[in-house]
Amino acid sequence: MTFFKQPATDGSLYDRLAIVTGTPGSGKTTLARLFEYDTVRGLLRNRNASTYRSLADALTQCGVLEDLTPKILGARVPLESEYRDFWEFPYPEETRMLLTTRLLEARSVIRWLRQLNESGISLNDIEIAPRAGAEAALEQIGGRDGQAVLDRARDVERALYKIVRALVPPRLDSLGSAVSEAYQPFDVVETINFPWEGQRISVTPLAMFDDAHSLHPVQYERLERWLAQREMRVGRWILTRLDALNPARVLGQEGEPDVQKLRVTTEIRMQLTERRATRTAFRKMAKDMSNRYLRQIESFNRRRLTDFSDLLATEVAAPTDKRLAELSGRVDVVQRRVGASDAQRRELQAKVEDYLDRSASNTGDPALILAATTIALERFGKRTPQLPLDVFADEDLEPNKPITIDASVIDGARIHLLHEGGVPYYVGFDALCDASSENAEQFLQLAGRLVTQAETQLVRGRQALLSANDQHRLIRQRSTEIIKAWDFPHHREVRALTDAIAKQCVERSLEGNASLGGGPNAWGIPQEQFEALPERHPGLARVLQFAVAYNALVLKTEHSTKNQLWCLLELGGPVAVANGLTLRRGGFLERDVRNILAVVEAV
Fold first, then answer.
1. What is the percent of the chain with per-residue pLDDT over 70, rounded to a whole number?
2. What is the mean pLDDT of residues 520-544?
3. Which of the two ends of the chain, N or C, has the fewest CB atoms closer than 10 A to its terminal CB?
4. What phi and psi, each to the nearest 5 degrees, are found at residue 383?
5. Which DSSP letter does residue 206 get?
6. Cross-strand partners of 19
7. pTM, 2 dp
8. Which of 199, 189, 192 is nearest to 68 (CA)?
9. Which positions ≥6 away from 176 have C-beta within 8 Å?
């Protein structure tokens, strides 16, 4: 519903080309399988099961169902390597494209009709309805009868398969009917009619071309242009990773949208631009997803442990007396250095305690209180005039601006405690979701490690509840493993860039006064410099494209600060976690393109 409800409502999801893009693991293939007819039919067969009602409602709002009757006949066609093989043949580009599209059309038709037949519908009861004006071309695809149309599609697939699997590409003049005979079902078919529960229904066929990033770049562009033809009446989707697109498109620097293009294509990004809404929506989705998985694990289901968030403790272990004494001594040192009186120190500490009492977490952790008081005193020192050591003021010095205690002070204190004392920071369900950068696969990788630990504890006769220490340790370990496993194109340059950003962000995060609260987790470059990247520095733009495509960086364009627009290169969740950085967004270090170039070119 997050990604498909709106285009389905405004009628732009099935009547034109829809391009669905996202990072690996964002859920593209899962959604394509959900929209397939086999899945929809299985859902309707179990329509009375309470666990499927919400899914049926979502598919209804996305236009797949109407009154629990199919309206869309979806078929997922994975773009395997053989399609790319066509592009390596020594044929003219038009011939290579013809071979590619013809095989895609044949396999789409086969998948549509085979799903209907396997559901118990006779091919003789299936009728192909052509679009207006295409009746004369109906014979080229086999006519109206489902059996004849399937036979024709199989013949085309067989002929093309012989070509693509030949050890030596056949001579162009020997291709024969594979390229000479007309076969364009996408230009002919409008609907497919078949019996359904005592009535005859008409559905719109939908072809979902998955993993389009496997194609040659030119082949992909040609495929996109071909599928954008307005004469086609079948639904058609391209599902691809961001690295299949050109860098300017991924970085959002293609300029003003082409009005004509908007009329023939619908673009669906699996990463939303409204960051606050994205996090809220993903947390809700992740909670539902994790709970469903948990119910499938017998050791949890048997004990009725079906809410994943209940397995994650949020209370941090109390600090030792020795640690508290160290923190208190540090407060004393800072107090003397900034020249605050005992009364002023007590006032600042009272503000901290009052804020924590009123906060949702309502924590009275003495270590957190002392760390936050230290930050408040550092800020006091920044805002009061510093007198020479041999001058004694008769009255307490007052800061030129009142010291307020807010979430940024508390987050800064938590980051300080993490780096200086190893106090758990990545704790609780929301932190787990935010560490995933709104990516379903990364969430499952991080959550899976926690579930395994909880199950181990159950097997050993202990509670499944994971302590804050265990959560923090396991999430950081898994995040480090994810980064070490990077092997995508330009991963060395991306790793060097994220390492440089993380190192400088850690240094800034540990400032005594926590000027950026929990600290930065991004570099910001002027928006105008970012917009010029694809043209002036195409190599760097390509590196950033892969960094974004594989969740190493998240872009926030047109971020307004200090009356200037910035593009934030924000570290992905696993990178931030592995380096002990805040997951709060917005804090960044001001840099420019030269800083990025210096890092990337040094690799």
1. 93
2. 93
3. C
4. -105, 10
5. E
6. 238, 267
7. 0.82
8. 199
9. none
- Show the tokens assigned to 573: 């969740």
**Alpha-carbon distances, residue 75 vs 26, 337, 478 (angstroms):** 20, 70, 35
Strands 199-210 and 72-78: parallel
d(CA 360, CA 157): 62
* Pairwise CA distance, residues 412 & 377, whole Å: 13
Indicate the residue type of 455: E
C-alpha angle 573-575-580 in degrees, rounded to nearest 5: 95
Q: What distance in Å separates the CA atoms of residue 231 and residue 228, rounded to the nearest whole number?
A: 9
* Pairwise CA distance, residues 452 & 460, whole Å: 12
Determine phi and psi for 130, rounding to 5 degrees: -80, 160
3-state secondary structure of 517: coil
The strand pair at 553-561 and 564-571 is best described as antiparallel
Nearest to 574 by CA among 494, 507, 512: 494
Backbone angles phi, psi at 314, to 5 degrees: -115, -10
Cα-based angle 234, 240, 245 (whole degrees, multiple of 5): 110
pLDDT at 397: 66
Question: In this structure, what token pair is assigned to residue 515?
Answer: 């000027």
Instruction: Choose among 210, 232, 221: nearest CA to 17.
Output: 232
The 3-class secondary structure across 109-142, one letter per residue, is HHHHHHHHHHCCCCHHHCEEEECCCCHHHHHHHC
Two structure tokens written together for 101: 């599209």
What is the share, in percent, of the chain residues with pLDDT greater than 90?
72
Identify the bridge partners of residue 195 per DSSP, sorted by sequence position: 200
Burial class (CB in 10 A: 0-12, 13-18, 19+), 306: middle
Q: Which two three-digit tokens encode residue 552?
A: 């190493």
Report the candidate in 553, 439, 564 with the shortest Cα–Cα distance to residue 505: 553
The identity of residue 433, as a single letter, is C
DSSP assignment of 173-191: GG-THHHHS---HHHHEEE
Q: What angle do CA 398, 401, 404 make, to 5 degrees?
A: 100
Helices 275-295 and 440-459 cross at an angle (nearest 10°) of 40
> DSSP string of 368-419?
HHHHHHHHHHHHHHHTSPPPPTT---SS----SS-----HHHHHHHHHHHHH
DSSP character string of 48-78 = T-HHHHHHHHHHHHTTSEETTEE-EEEEEEE
Question: What residues have CB less than 8 Å from 585, skipping those under 6 apart?
Answer: 275, 521, 556, 570
pLDDT band at 320, cuts 50/70/90? very high
H/E stretch holding 526? strand 522-526
Helices (H) and strands (E) in the chain, counts: 27, 13
Of the candidates 375, 478, 360, which has an alpha carbon nearest to the alpha carbon of residue 417? Answer: 375
For 289, residues 6+ apart whose C-beta sits below 8 A from its C-beta are 440, 443, 444
